[in-house]
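Our collaborator T.R. sent over the components below with a one-line note: 'Predict the complex.' Nothing else. No constraints on interfaces, no templates requested, no preferences about which chain binds where. So this is a plain run: every listed entity goes in together, and whatever single assembly comes back becomes the starting point for the next discussion.
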Amino acid sequence: MTKVCTLTEAVHTLVRDGDTVVLGTGLEHAIPFAAGHEIIRQRKRNLTLVGPISDILFDQLIGGGCVKKVEAAWIGNVAGGSAYNFRRAVESGAIEMVDHSNLTVALRLQAAAWGVPFLPTRTALGSDLMDNPSLKSMRCPFTNELLVAVAALSPDVAIIHAQRADANGNAYCLGNLGITTQAVGASRRVLLTVEEIVEPEIICERPELVAFSGTCVTAVVKVPFGAHPSPLVGYYHRDDAYFLDYHARSKTPQEFEKWLAEWVSHLPDRAQYLSKIKIEKLRL
Amino acid sequence: MTKVCTLTEAVHTLVRDGDTVVLGTGLEHAIPFAAGHEIIRQRKRNLTLVGPISDILFDQLIGGGCVKKVEAAWIGNVAGGSAYNFRRAVESGAIEMVDHSNLTVALRLQAAAWGVPFLPTRTALGSDLMDNPSLKSMRCPFTNELLVAVAALSPDVAIIHAQRADANGNAYCLGNLGITTQAVGASRRVLLTVEEIVEPEIICERPELVAFSGTCVTAVVKVPFGAHPSPLVGYYHRDDAYFLDYHARSKTPQEFEKWLAEWVSHLPDRAQYLSKIKIEKLRL
Amino acid sequence: MNYTPQELMVAAAARQIQDRELVFVGMRLPMLAFQLAKVTHAPRAVSLFENGLLREASAQAMIYTMGDLPNQIGATWATGLIDVMALLQRGAVEVGFLGGAQIDRFGNLNTTWSNAGERKLRLPGSGGACDIACLAKRVVILMNHEPRRFVERVDYITSPGYGSGGAWRREQGLTGGGPSVLITSKAIFTIDSASKEWVLHSVHPRVSLDEIKQSVGWRLQIAPELRETVPPTSEELSRIRAFDPQGFWTRRAV
Amino acid sequence: MNYTPQELMVAAAARQIQDRELVFVGMRLPMLAFQLAKVTHAPRAVSLFENGLLREASAQAMIYTMGDLPNQIGATWATGLIDVMALLQRGAVEVGFLGGAQIDRFGNLNTTWSNAGERKLRLPGSGGACDIACLAKRVVILMNHEPRRFVERVDYITSPGYGSGGAWRREQGLTGGGPSVLITSKAIFTIDSASKEWVLHSVHPRVSLDEIKQSVGWRLQIAPELRETVPPTSEELSRIRAFDPQGFWTRRAV
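Returned assembly:
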């Protein structure tokens, strides 16, 4: 009984309509675009997306009709500016938005990962982010200082992309981690995509590089370049031109539909996607 | 202006009479015995020791007359049983003891490292450990569940032993970490002893192995075998016989005084100490 | 076949571990029990150590402490104490092992202070024991069977069992399941589901029921069909002796 | 010497960084400012990125995002967001840089919602900006100087400045120092120590005082000895252009 399966199977089994899904946990690094595109292809609906900064993947999922709610700190295109599907959907009321700072969304997941119902912080005090049911003013039981209590959140699924893992899901996560460990610890199911699946003995050579226990992981899928167009430490650079092209081609719903057909809906799988890209230019 | 100095200088400058000192943060691994012995030699007084499980180093510091208070989860000799100086001092009222679980002492430091005045937990509920001014019952502001609030603690000094660091104190900590990152983040000053000091470029090759930022470190001291008789991943095994010998030779104050003279007080430095040990047998 | 009480305890403790379980191990006898379970019925059990280690493979040499290099080498995850305690606190750890200097009718453990006549004796303290007692789904307790250790009410609750019994744990807000089994050098006890006090489940070979009754400081409940404890098999014994060749933990005269 | 307003802003921002400071950098112009400070007066300044990176050495190539490989390679510490935010929350970060779509008299920033006549425009949100605004010892703000961005009161406080002025931050429990300097494409502002509103500190070359006064939505305080902003030196300009050869961030026509 192994956790290793195909991306199609993993998304089919782990991501269900109406789920709360945390993804893009590395901020602009190691974003699980391959898994995100598979969610769009499988026409998942009414998802709640949770994340800190998610470059353009949230925008694509919103444009793909998968999303009813977003709970995040920042949604845009870091190099380009606005995320147009997101703007349109929030301004029209088509999706619900719950605003966070990076730290408050991280603490929602950290609380759940630690098994406590809340964690205190000094951020967000005095800001309008406090208009959020998961943030409450409180006083320290020892010092009486004003603090913000952040309620725990346990997503249904976390989707993570990493460099390598064994078949049990023990993964090396190289480079910055963002809120990856918190997301894995908080979620009921974890879908892990990796560049390479290796033997457990390889992982045990440097157990300090393992970011979370494989006991938390539900499915492990080998997806080379699974984070493209975002960068991945040790494997490939960011595809800057792709982000700028997406920015130009998502300004109207009509343009976005064409982009989506070309890059997601009409492609059967990731292999076809990669054949459209000069991937060797990005490889380290 | 470098942080690199001798152990004598570092202990002289960083550890002051009356200080709160956290050490033994790796539990039974990487215990900073060399620095602890230097504290005894320099006759520091009225220290408060903080730690989770500290194998025999706390016992030696207590026997050396350096300690007025201990705030910890477990004090003993893991292989042998009792820590006799500790027992004598607590039973006679010579030192004050504040009892913790491993998690509550870790959370005191984690709270300070995070810059919040407390953190909540579900441990210790219903236990007599609650008879501790840094633990208080509270209710979750969201769920109303019973929890324990653990007050932040900022020690004056953390003493850490690691494998290697650069001159700024950016350290690779290999093997289990215990509460090392929490202790470093919580403390006003950090005394780091290491097996090797290396160039920053070496550290930057694998920044995932750096356990804390060198910006938190006050002094960096090269002390080979600085954790003996405790083990250090990548460098040396635990000296089991030494622990058992200490156990046998600390049963009475008189025996302990002889042990202390032989192994600490009458030795000028760590080099002399190491010359008394068959260190090659322990080296990896 | 000859075996020591400690060897029987290790074999009985190993049977408490099921395959694929995440186990908070601790040192001494539970460590041997975990190693034994791995090579017999629970090859995919995973061990967790509070210093910050998780192992899928067994350690390859005898260890005195969880920080010893044979426990570090081949670990699957090397991290900090809080990451490991987080698994415990969020309910992911199926079973934790504990010992103690003193235990009472409701499974509360004391490893902090004990009263010896006039004198108060200081013990090492909780370590991670309180955390495991509060937070693990099940707790298995191993103790040497000496009458002074089995009292109506412990002098100090280091590691909560069922407090004063009944719904006490829920009232305190405790989320872990509490003690499920007590394995001593003379007998095995389980918990009465309503009163939450110990029930004598089985008596080890060559131990009399009276001896057990007289050794505990309260009126002991006894299971309707009291059994004799299943002794270790020869395979179990040879495995245990391979892990602890000097009998350091199992006190076997070699 | 010719330079763009963005190049002047970068040079002015770099001067806000002192040697050895721990700096929460962010992207775009502040990133260039940090790089410039490192090669001029602050070689030992340390940069911190909310994705979980700390760098003692500068990045060796132009980056679009903090996750780009030139920012990862040569990092001193690769960790998680909370570890970096912990440095901020415990008061270890001397200065953080922010931008914004809208700013008000008391330094409050809005990057969430803005009102354009009837329509509400959705902006990207806080990211780490609220955290930096709440927790850094000093905050330096860089903004393009367009009148619609400078209002009496922001529509939404994403990143708190001084709220309604005076002791507001202390009353809210905020531990960070709040905004210290605002660098726009036309002028530099500092904070009045009592009222906590902006004071016009210097006007950039070729910009008139009247233009500034008319561009803000409140009655602007002006420093008694109003200066002209020191323009970037030729060394600063050549450094900036080496970091951003295409003028991607500094909008320089090449």
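Summary for T.R.: Chains D and C do not touch (no CB pair under 8 Å).
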